[in-house]
Design brief:
The structure holds 2 protein chains of 2 kinds. By secondary structure, chain A is an alpha/beta fold. In chain A, 18% of the residues lie in helices and 23% in strands. Chain A contains 3 helices and 8 strands. Classes of the chains: A alpha/beta, B mainly alpha.
């Protein structure tokens, strides 16, 4: 039986609450809407122009008594940024005065690039990364806008990206893989 | 041995051993893009290993973590296919090994997304997205190298002749498999063979490669009965830090 606030398969990644520590009833308990707004300011460590909420990896925010539960899903199962993201979230919330935070890894449903917000897609493009498309490749070079693009490699500098090249401006660019 | 623990080790040891093998290419691949692709593929497999062996440790309930299972077991405890422990050889052999594994892996994971065990189903649903990508790349490269130059074709055929006998054990059912299949946890390995043969046949035809006539199968990897000599050498590399400096962390 999973503890309150956890779903089947959730694995606790970070828990800042000290076991046995008396609950601090005087501690502020901001509503979850406020928490979501704070999380929207936590940047992705690899692509800092988008936030962890832009990326769609924060799946749930709930209060369990005086502990804040945050379920995060990994983009790729081996992505090294996952543990950094959990640490960054905890740090950001501690800076806001929250000390009892539990971050869990939730696998199901698996992350999909469909969860990237429209704002995130624009931010990626402006940053020079072509946003994901169901067609499997970018529609245009994010640097010059040309539609003459070709794939160099299915993989790129991070698990979530592939390498493409523009045949007009000749610049290589990253494409955010569609999964 | 608990069949569920055994099965989870089989899944996790496959991705661990192949992930390590593929990572041996890091910094040595023929071109930069392939170096990055190999490293990314290895990373996905190590990530999948953490999920499988993490769950194996939970199921076993003896306090062993995924790291403990990966770094502190010896050859006889590993349950990976013989295929994945085979040496990298040249780039073509590495890609062909990946292709032979990906074809099976994708089918296995797809079947596991319908597992009656929800933890297994959700790991499979996560992993199959990554493996679909691996399978696409490895098949594409096998076709390009097989149907390539005289030199590349000869190397791919030699790799196929060498590796093919190591694929047979993928489809051999044992008591562990039968116990799990009866509960709907995992498919019977033999049930995946017809689809594998058909897809591999079509792929090899396109790559102008010839499947060896002999259906002789090496076995013993996934049961742990007898690994090839290569696994021990691999483990001396992979595990040396934990062996030399037990419990070291960073």
């Amino acid at each position: 039986m999973a503890p309150a606030g956890l779903s089947v398969g959730d694995v606790v990644t970070r828990a800042s609450a000290v076991p046995g520590q008396a609950p601090d009833s005087a501690a502020p308990r901001p509503d979850t809407g406020t928490i979501w707004r704070w999380l929207a300011e936590v940047p992705d460590p690899e692509i800092p122009v988008i936030s962890v909420t832009d990326l769609g990896i924060v799946r749930e925010v709930t209060w369990q008594g005086d502990t804040l539960d945050i379920a995060v899903t990994p983009t790729y199962s081996g992505c090294p940024a996952t543990s950094v993201i959990a640490m960054d979230i905890e740090t950001a919330l501690r800076d806001r005065g929250l000390t009892r935070v539990r971050i869990t890894t939730r696998l199901s449903p698996p992350w999909t690039t469909d969860w990237l917000t429209d704002a995130a897609r624009d931010k990626l493009r402006r940053y020079g990364i072509a946003p994901p498309r169901a067609a499997g490749g970018p529609d245009a070079c994010p640097l010059c806008g040309s539609a003459h693009v070709e794939r160099i490699s299915q993989f790129g500098s991070t698990p979530c990206k592939a390498q493409w090249r523009c045949k007009d401006c000749l610049e290589p660019f990253d494409y955010f893989k569609c999964i | 041995m608990d069949p569920l623990f055994e099965f989870l080790c089989r899944m996790g040891d496959n991705t661990l051993v192949l992930g390590h093998r593929v990572s041996e290419w890091c910094g040595h691949a023929p071109v930069l893009e392939e170096d990055i692709a190999l490293a990314n593929t290895a990373l996905d497999m190590i990530g999948q290993t953490q999920m499988w062996l993490g769950l194996a440790g939970e199921v076993e309930a003896k306090g062993r973590s995924a790291d403990d299972l990966a770094m502190l077991r010896d050859v006889w405890d590993f349950r990976n296919l013989l295929l994945v422990e085979q040496p990298n050889g040249d780039f073509g052999q590495t890609i062909l090994r990946q292709c032979l594994f990906d074809l099976w892996h994708k089918d296995m994971l797809t079947a596991l997304t319908a597992s009656t065990n929800p933890r297994i189903a959700e790991i499979a649903a996560k992993a199959v997205k990554e493996v679909t990508y691996h399978a696409e790349r490895s098949a594409d490269l096998v076709i390009r190298l097989g149907d390539g130059t005289e030199e590349s074709r000869a190397r791919m055929q030699a790799a196929l002749d060498r590796l093919m006998p190591n694929t047979g054990e993928m489809f051999q059912d044992d008591d562990t498999d039968r116990a799990l299949a009866a509960e709907g946890v995992a498919p019977l390995p033999s049930s995946l063979q017809a689809g594998y043969d058909a897809r591999l046949g079509a792929l090899l035809a396109e790559a102008t490669l010839t499947r060896p006539e002999s259906r002789y199968a090496q076995a013993g990897g996934r049961t742990g009965r007898r690994h090839s000599e290569h696994l021990g050498h691999l483990l001396t590399q992979m595990q040396w830090l934990q062996r030399a400096y037990p419990w070291a962390t960073w």
